[in-house]
Amino acid sequence: MNAMNQGKLPLSLSLSFSEVACGFFLILSAAKSKGMSSGSLSTVPQSEISRDQEGCKEHFVSGGIRYVDNVTFHGQYAEVVISQPRDGVIKEGEWFTLMCRYNNGFVTACWYKNNIYEDIAYQLRRKADSKTGGSYQCQNWSSSSRGETLKVVTIASDMTLTVQVHSTTLLLGETSVLKCSSYSWGFGRDYSFLWYRNNFLIEEEHEPEYTIAMARFSDGATYRCEQKLGFRKWISQNVSLIVKVPVAGVFLKLRTNKTEILIGSSPVLECVLSRGTRPYFQWYFQQKALNNVSMNYNFSSDWRELAIESFQSQHIGQYQCGAINRGPSGMIFNVTSNPIDLTLPVSSCAGAVYCSVKNTDTHNDDSKMDDSLLYSVVTISKPRNAGKGYNKHTSITFLAQ
């Protein structure tokens, strides 16, 4: 009896060791087949897996893969990343791909959306629709916990969103209101709003209206609004605003010291502006506009300067320049400079058709020019409704000196 018992004992022990070795081999093989590094592996009893309600473990068990815990990945968390599109912007009606990054690599994982099991896949590829947005998590089959949550917000396509503004041109110091408006508002819904300036989020603004108070030059920028409801978002087109300063302080300057010009000389007149945003210039001779290059007149590229190539008797007369820019709502600011009379020297007047020596003492040096309007005709034009399909301007003209 003792001999028999002694003979059975080694047999029993050998079977036990064989089972353990076989089980370890199967687990290790399964781990390697998944691309996992070898290490200390421990099995979870089948009873515990069957009692676990998480879809990931149940799905792997039903697929014949034993659930193991690889200590090499201990403390690592899975991360959901948007693989496609590359800019991470998921638009409804277009395809997108999510992948699960784990231990510096992408792995097959169980996928959850809003804590509900979705699928098991190496990548989650879907066509976005109105129900796509949500909180996504992935779980590697070797991990007992899910990864970090990625909130996916889709760009909706069933609502047109616009930024409404009274005028895209603002005067310095003016107040303007931008409105985020759509063609199909949902009543009783908890919409939230975001505003962006030059693609940077304006942190403190979450209302459907954004007010620019006392406009500064920095407020001249590109704006857009976003309207959000749950995991859906609508994005408006960009609207560009320009902040302008009305033209003022227009002064005509002659680069020579005297207004008596010798025949054949090349005088240059310069239109100096003390302030004003993006003005354009107009030149006048004998109170008539010079609109083309003629009679040896040459204009600089920005029309700030007028040069006479070869001064002749037909160039004798009065010159002025005007600076013009536009404000909001079609308002026009037009400031005309002081006049300068160009003449021939007294000794040359005998053969001249027209000769004048008046106004030879002009303000041509910078020391006599300050920020005020030395001699300017200021015209501010504002459109008014004239009826019958015609648009007319109401003009206010005054003399400043």
From TrEMBL:
Keywords: Disulfide bond, Signal. It comes from the Eukaryota. Pfam families: Ig_3. InterPro entries: Ig-like_dom, Ig-like_dom_sf, Ig-like_fold, Ig_Fc_receptor, Ig_sub. Gene3D superfamilies: Immunoglobulins. One of its GO terms (molecular function) is transmembrane signaling receptor activity. GO terms for biological process: cell surface receptor signaling pathway; immune response. Coiled coil: none annotated. Residues 78-154, 157-225, 246-338 form the Ig-like domain. GO terms for cellular component: external side of plasma membrane. PANTHER family: IG-LIKE DOMAIN-CONTAINING PROTEIN (PTHR11481:SF60), IMMUNOGLOBULIN FC RECEPTOR (PTHR11481). This is Ig-like domain-containing protein. It comes from Chiloscyllium punctatum.
